């Protein structure tokens, strides 16, 4: 592996121009950056993962169209983490040890991200950015500072979810939440901000019936059910809640912003509100990003955390370009600077990506303003600012975005 200083990186580009190929002045071929994508493609999550994979591919396509990193096309590897944390760790290790990736985008879930950060990426010195892992428990992960995320912590989402529930007029709710790092984290954040009556039940991942938990949560006169599970569990929870007559009203966590969930439970979710990570308010750059996505795939993103996947990929490519190296620690050490500057402000567009690669290749500095939010990380790899969106299911099963709440830590 060849490691370049910033000065050496500029020299490589000069040599490439002179020789017509990307060859370092000492005769060694500059290494190609290889980024791995690790997402859960299992049943119930497949379409979400595909939407995020499209954003990953769009980011790599734009980087490569601009000449790549160090003047070479970025290479990619994709693997299925499934919902099993042990499988996620195994696949992450395979990507690092067998595929030779220099950085990771993913995993998507908090339950998978925590062990991957602590048992694979951190020990191997490979930077990983999750586009959607939001558990507050990840803030304290023992990851050697190699784990970052492009989504706000649920320490921000929980209070918004509690406020939405109050605004809907509810004062007494039941809660069903998953017994994993994400479920516990979002439940603790919600319950700490909730001021009304509450009965909660925790369920293990993979459970297939929830009648006993539903009866438990409804026993105190709950007016609505807050569902903090993934889509597969939520479809069963909601059907059983309605069929048993225990609940008619629902409030949904960020993992449930899914058109497929609405279709799976018929009209049971008409009018149901939820929260999820959201992009910054509409801008010319974001409109251009949306247009690029539609031009490539024929439709806009349908699920949450798609833009965040793009941002994570771009940030890793820019950090490698800034470092002049594919060394994991060198990439990690430049993530915060390309995400928060100071430097030339870069927008999430093909032209912006090309400008960033050029500026960094010339030894300059950039401040990447992401498609989802400003990539400004603190010492824990958590975002310092971002937005939580409030949305609802319409009567015809569509998802309608209502408004977003900005958070600055």
Protein traits:
409 residues, alpha/beta, seven-stranded mixed beta sheet, five-stranded parallel beta sheet, 13 helices, 42% helix, 18% strand, disordered N terminus
Share of helical residues: 40-55%
Strand content: 15-25%
Instruction: Report the total helices.
Output: 13
The overall strand count is 14
Shape: globular
Low-confidence stretches: 1-27
Largest sheet: 7 strands, mixed
Distance between the termini: 38 Å
Return the structural class: alpha/beta
User: What is the CA-atom radius of gyration, in angstroms?
Assistant: 22 Å
Describe this structure in words.
By secondary structure, the protein is α/β, with parallel strands linked by helices. The chain contains 13 helices and 14 strands. It has helices at residues 6-19, 46-65, 85-97, 110-124, 154-167, 181-193, 211-218, 231-243, 259-264, 284-297, 306-323, 328-340, 350-361, and strands at residues 34-39, 75-80, 103-105, 128-130, 147-149, 172-178, 197-203, 224-228, 250-252, 273-278, 344-346, 366-368, 385-393, 399-408. The chain has a seven-stranded mixed beta sheet with strand order 7-6-8-9-10-13-14, with helices on both faces. α2 links the parallel β1 (34-39) and β2 (75-80). α2 runs parallel beside α11, α3 (85-97) packs parallel to α4 and α11 crosses α12 (328-340). The longest helix has 20 residues, at 46-65. The relative contact order is 0.14.
